[in-house]
Amino acid sequence: MEPIASQSTEMRIYNFDSSDKVLGIDDQIGKSVENYGCRQIIGHRGDFHLIMKDFALEQGVKIRLGERVEVYDPSQPSITLSSGEIIQSDVVIIADGVRSKGRTTVLGYEDKPQASGYAIYRSFMSGDLLRDDPLTNVGDVAESWTKEATKDDVLACLEGWDPAVRRVWEKMPSVIDWKLVYRPCLDKWVADSGLITLMGDAAHPFLPTSTQGASQAIEDGATIAKCLSKCAGNIPLALHTYFEIRHDYVAEAQATGIKQREIWHNLHDEDSKAFKKEFDINATMMQNLYLWKNDAEKLVDEKWDEVSEIVKQRLSVNSG
């Protein structure tokens, strides 16, 4: 992971109209090892996917791309591909994102995510295009819900912004208007059979302002793996214990994104653009402190005996 990680030790937050107006400095990146015993890894998601893929292949995991799941059968459990092929296994873990098809199988009814009322412009470009321009080369640059947008759309929104920000968007080869969708954390992640579960955005979509979507999905995966290693073949016990250990924590983390969104979008008066309130970066960081301290695998070790016993008793009552 280290080769893809940013080497920045802090993140500076500037006012929208000038790189001279520093609203706050988040120095937790550089202090993470000292304060929490672990390095914060910030890198490009595509590079991270490649690392995860290579590791999975080393462990003997079979990866099949370009396949579409048409049916999840919680009783087998199994999946049916668009080709008609049926694949059976001991457990099915559904990680198909915010537009999850598997969510309907688990819940027993269709549950669509909600529009958040917010949208963002997204794009991707080579860093060389920024380094070649003195204005943007500053050294270390610390259903369908998408449609193609134009640079003019973006630049109209950036009227009065810092010239360097506008220049970056002028160089973008293409732009996507990305509608942000959301739904509260589901209260049910595990199918009634106990053999299929949801994880990641399929169970708890995160807004970008939380900066937690990918990391919480990884913690879900680590928790499931740990629970399966402890369940002695009792899949329903493992999956229901995973849910009990993760649900409240994830719901709180998800709510953090909403709080952050309200902070970021309400600093300025809409008409005058003047500050309505001061931005307290330290207070914002303290709200997220519990996220830094959480160790998903250690938490399973600490809570397995207690939580799995409660789950075992509940499953026994329900089956009786």
Concise account of the structure shown:
This is Monooxygenase. With 320 residues, the chain is α+β, with helices and mostly antiparallel strands.
Structure notes:
Belongs to the paxM FAD-dependent monooxygenase family. This protein is an alpha+beta fold and 320 residues long. The strands form 4 sheets. It has a 3-stranded antiparallel β-sheet, with no helix packed on it. A 3-stranded antiparallel β-sheet has the order 7-9-8. Helix 7 packs antiparallel against helix 8 and helix 8 crosses helix 11. About 2% of the residues have low confidence.
Rough shape?
globular
Whole-number average pLDDT?
A: 82
- Biggest pleated-sheet summary: 3 strands, antiparallel
Number of helices: 11
Secondary structural class: alpha+beta
Give the radius of gyration.
22 Å
Portion of residues in beta strands equals 15-25%
Number of E-type strands: 10
Element order: H for helix, E for strand: EEHHEEEEHEHEHHEEHHHHH
First-to-last CA distance: 48 Å
Major sheet: order of its strands? 3-4-5
Percent of residues in helical segments? Answer: 40-55%
Q: Ranges with pLDDT <50 over ≥5 residues?
A: 138-144
GO molecular function, one term: monooxygenase activity
Keywords: Monooxygenase, Oxidoreductase
Family: Belongs to the paxM FAD-dependent monooxygenase family.
Protein name: Monooxygenase
Give the tags:
single chain, 320 residues, alpha+beta, three-stranded antiparallel beta sheet, 11 helices, 42% helix, oxidoreductase, FAD-dep_Monooxygenase_BioMet, FAD/NAD-bd_sf, Monooxygenase
